[in-house]
C-alpha cells in the first residue's frame, strides 16, 4: 500500500510520445530522477534512483551530477546516498506565493482556524488526489502532518469527495475508477458504486463528511473551492478527533463555518 503521506498521483499517459516535438526528454528524465524520492524513507543510492526513475545507471549518474551542481540534489550527511536539495524549496515558495487561490484562501483559513480551533487544511485538486498547500494544525498532530505537499486520495477523504461532487457525475466516476482504491483503515469504502452514492450525498449537502475512513479516530468535513463555472480547484478540510467529538456534534459545529469560508473564497476568485 502507498504511504499515507502521499497518495498515488494521476496515472500519466506516455508523456514521451514520439509525436510530441515540443517535449524535451532530458527535462522529463530529470523530473523522473527528482520523483524517485517520492516514496523514499531515507537517502537513495545511485542504483536506487536509477531503478525508481526507470532509467539506466549511466543516465542517472549524469542527471544526478547536474542536479547536484545546481543544488536540487545533495549528498546525505553520512555520504551514503542522495537527498533532495534545498533549492527545491524555492519552487515550493513560488507556487504558494503566486497561486491566486492560495492567496485568497490563506486569510479566510486563518479566521476559520480561530473559530473552530481544530485542524484546518487547504488542498489543491489533482484529479485522483488532493495536494495540501496550507496546513493549520491542532495540538494532536505529528511532524509529518504539518508538511505542505502531503497528498491524499479523492475517493475516501472529505475534501476529495467534496471536489468529486463539484464535477459532473460521469467525470467523478471516471476519476474513482482510475484510482487505486486502497483500504487505509478497516472502514475505508472501496466499492465504486457506494463511493458515488457518498459523492451524491456531498453534492446534496454542499459538503462531505468522512468518519474513520482515512485516519482512524478522525471525523472530517470537506468543502470544495471552485471556479466560476463550478469546476473544482481544491478543498477546505476541517478535522476533529472522535475522542473529543461525536460525528453529529462535529458536523453541527464545523459544517456551517467551513461552508461559509468556502463561500468567501469562491466569491473572491
Secondary structure layout plus pairing:
Elements: H1 25-35, H2 46-53, H3 57-70, E1 73-75, E2 82-84, H4 88-98, H5 100-116, E3 119-126, E4 129-136, E5 151-153, H6 158-165, H7 169-177, H8 192-205, E6 208-211, E7 218-226, E8 232-241, H9 247-268
Antiparallel strand pairs: 1-2, 3-4, 3-8, 4-5, 6-7, 7-8
Helix pairs in contact: 1-2, 2-3, 5-9, 6-8, 7-8
Describe, in plain words, how this protein is organized in 3D:
By secondary structure, the protein is of the alpha+beta class. It has two domains: 1-86, Arc Repressor Mutant, subunit A; 99-268, Beta-Lactamase. It contains nine helices and eight strands. Strands 5-4-3-8-7-6 form a six-stranded antiparallel β-sheet, with helices on both faces. The longest helix has 22 residues, at 247-268. The radius of gyration is 20 Å and the shape is globular.
Provide the descriptors you would attach to this structure in a database record:
269 residues; alpha+beta; Arc Repressor Mutant, subunit A; Beta-Lactamase; 2 domains; six-stranded antiparallel beta sheet; 9 helices
Strand element count: 8
* CATH fold name of the largest domain: Beta-Lactamase
Whole-angstrom Rg? 20 Å
Specify the biggest β-sheet: 6 strands, antiparallel
- The chain-level mean pLDDT equals 90
Tally the helices: what do you get?
9
Secondary-structure-based class equals alpha+beta
Strand order of the largest sheet: 5-4-3-8-7-6
Basic shape: globular
Helix percent band: 40-55%
Q: Per DSSP, what share of the residues sits in E-state strands of 2 or more residues?
A: 15-25%
Name of the CATH superfamily of the largest domain: GAF domain
What is the CATH C level class of the largest domain, in words?
Alpha Beta
Number of domains: 2
Please give the CATH architecture of the largest domain. 2-Layer Sandwich
Residue windows where pLDDT falls under 50 for at least 5 positions: none
What is the CA-CA span between the terminal residues?
A: 37 Å
- How are helices and strands ordered from N to C? HHHEEHHEEEHHHEEEH
Amino acid at each position: 500500500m502507498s504511504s499515507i503521506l502521499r497518495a498515488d498521483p494521476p496515472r500519466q499517459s506516455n508523456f514521451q510520445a514520439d509525436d510530441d516535438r515540443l517535449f524535451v526528454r532530458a527535462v522529463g528524465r530529470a523530473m523522473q530522477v527528482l520523483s524517485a524520492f517520492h516514496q523514499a524513507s531515507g537517502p537513495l543510492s545511485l542504483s536506487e534512483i536509477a531503478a525508481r526513475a526507470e532509467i539506466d545507471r549511466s543516465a542517472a549518474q549524469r542527471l544526478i551530477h547536474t542536479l547536484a551542481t545546481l543544488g536540487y540534489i545533495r549528498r546525505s550527511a553520512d555520504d551514503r546516498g542522495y537527498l533532495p536539495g534545498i533549492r527545491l524549496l524555492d519552487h515550493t515558495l513560488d507556487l504558494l506565493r503566486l497561486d491566486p487561490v492560495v492567496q485568497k484562501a490563506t486569510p479566510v483559513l486563518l479566521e476559520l482556524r480561530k473559530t473552530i480551533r481544530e485542524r484546518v487544511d487547504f488542498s489543491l485538486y489533482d484529479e485522483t488526489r488532493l495536494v495540501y498547500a496550507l496546513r493549520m494544525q491542532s495540538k494532536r498532530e505529528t511532524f509529518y502532518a504539518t508538511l505542505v505537499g502531503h497528498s491524499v486520495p479523492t475517493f475516501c477523504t472529505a475534501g476529495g469527495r467534496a471536489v468529486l461532487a463539484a464535477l459532473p457525475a460521469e467525470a467523478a466516476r471516471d476519476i474513482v475508477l482510475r484510482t487505486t482504491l486502497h483500504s487505509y483503515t478497516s472502514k475505508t469504502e472501496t466499492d465504486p458504486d457506494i463511493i458515488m452514492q457518498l459523492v451524491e450525498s456531498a453534492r446534496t449537502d454542499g459538503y462531505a463528511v468522512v468518519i474513520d475512513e482515512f485516519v482512524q479516530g478522525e471525523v472530517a468535513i470537506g468543502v470544495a473551492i471552485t471556479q466560476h463555472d463550478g469546476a473544482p480547484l481544491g478543498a477546505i478540510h476541517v478535522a476533529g478527533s472522535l475522542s473529543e467529538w461525536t460525528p453529529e456534534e462535529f458536523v453541527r459545529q464545523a459544517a456551517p463555518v467551513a461552508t461559509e469560508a468556502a463561500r468567501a473564497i469562491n466569491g473572491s476568485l
